[in-house]
Design goal:
Elements (H helix, E strand, L loop, with lengths): L45 E2 L2 H20 L5 E7 L8 E7 L14 E6 L5 E7 L3 E9 L2 E7 L6 E5 L4 E3 L3
Antiparallel strand pairs: 1-2, 2-3, 3-4, 4-5, 6-7, 7-8, 8-9
């Protein structure tokens, strides 16, 4: 798949009324553990806080409205990381539904990278499909590189290209 990777085995956290549920074993392995190039352990995804939920709504609102119109809650897990060192953490968000990710328009669930703009809006600066993510030890144009993988496949690098995160070849 061009520009991203697949992600499966997500823990489910319902948006809205069901927020606050634990993530369970589906997120084990979402750390920076691995080759020496990885940095410190990465925090775990958790229930989305209200500001993070608002950011996801800004970025993917029309899609979420369509899914909810079909009677399905959209489940969101988030993680805040300052990827560019400006003191303002970006939001990594994973979306899913109780029926998997086909209602979201994909066979697998997306992971988004959102950045807050000066006007307060959040924009999507990366979309990936992976079941594991970690910080890479390198930076591209001042932004932290990310490494992701699907199932037990190879780790793949995503680097900042000046506009958004894109997969790179090693």
């Amino acid at each position: 798949m061009r520009g991203g990777w697949m992600m499966r085995g997500l823990g489910m956290l319902a948006l809205g009324a069901v927020l606050g549920t634990g993530l369970g074993p589906a997120l084990e392995g979402f750390t920076a553990a691995g080759p020496a190039r990885a940095e410190a352990p990465m925090p775990r995804f958790a229930a989305a806080d209200p500001a993070a939920l608002s950011a996801v709504e800004q970025a993917r609102g029309p899609l979420l409205v369509r899914v909810r119109a079909n009677g399905l809650p959209v489940e969101v897990e988030t993680l805040r990381l300052d990827l560019n060192g400006d003191g303002e953490p970006e939001i990594l968000a994973r979306l899913s539904t109780p029926r998997g990710c086909a209602p979201l328009g994909r066979a697998d669930c997306p992971m988004l990278v959102l950045q807050r703009q000066p006007d307060g809006r959040h924009v999507e600066i990366g979309t990936f499909f992976a079941d594991r993510v970690r910080l890479a030890g390198e930076r591209s144009q001042g932004w932290q590189d990310l490494e992701m993988r699907f199932v037990n496949g190879p780790w793949r690098r995503a680097a900042w290209n000046g506009t958004l995160y894109r997969s790179t070849r090693r």
